[in-house]
Amino acid sequence: MSTPIFREVGMVNYCSRLRPGLTGVACLLIFLGACSQGSISGNQDSPGVDNTSEVAGSEAEVVKDQSQWTLPTDPYYGGQILALTSQAEETVVKNCMVKAGFSDYRVRMDASAPAPANLAGDGISVLFNETTAKQFGYRRAPDPRDLLEAEIEASGGDLFSGKSNEFFDQLDICNLEGQAAVAGVSVDEFKASHQESTGSADAVQENPASIGSQLNRLGVDLNSPELSAAAASWRECMVPLGISDLPDRPWNAGSTRELPESLRDKWGWKPTGKPSADEIATASADAACRASSGWTDTLYQQEWDTHQAFVDAHRAELTPVLAEHQAEAARAREIIAKGGA
Fold first, then answer.
1. Given its phi and psi angles, is residue 12 left (phi above 0), alpha (psi -120 to 50 degrees) or beta?
2. 200-228: pLDDT as tens digits
């Protein structure tokens, strides 16, 4: 299975590599919380695998739409097929677990359900704007595709609490089977490939010249004159809120690390769950300040231009990346259609 490429904003783990201005949600089954600093105007259609891009052969054309914070690089990160491949993998795992006598394993993802109301066009990140702030504060919207989200939230986040060692041993075996099926290889081939890529500290260091590494590092200069001026206006607008540790520029709203500590402590904040009335009020004022200061419009335009220039300069390298995602999506659809058999 191919590893999705994620934009990086200070966070270096697999689940949170995302573009500047958008904090991520990678690892859909683990964490979908974070927000862009974009504004919204218009529809809230759920972006899915094909909602924001028209795939024709080996190229993908992305429609410029600030209301969903689409960028020309969106199809190449793999986020648009994450729900699909997760459902396919889990479908195989369920069959494997049931055969081993563990009939209580449940498939968590339903890729056919609507995406979260504030999911951005890349299929990974979520929007933070005046509309979403009034509904979700700084948090992610509930994900209708995640069939167990509410149950896991209520239980404190532990899906397999109380399961036996035998359950977990078998789950490890079945997870490998699911990953191999989505990757289109045998379990032995998948294990060999995985061991090769993680066999040593040196092996896991990504080649900085690779297209994936370049995509992960792609970003705008947040200290540019235009964004610096917008940030100053934003700070002035935010003064009445009385945030003692207000940063120099808007933060990535879904990030526990970047949210001002005073707000994090005040709300006992986490990226999921229902926000308080005070969080809604603060987030709404913040989103309005980001829009009125020009931060939102300027950031989106600079991101669009930067990402379009990258696509134009690297089309030959990006073509096989898109082809791999398309092939993986096709395998996932077939697996789901066959019930994982």
1. alpha
2. 444 445 677 888 888 888 899 999 999 99
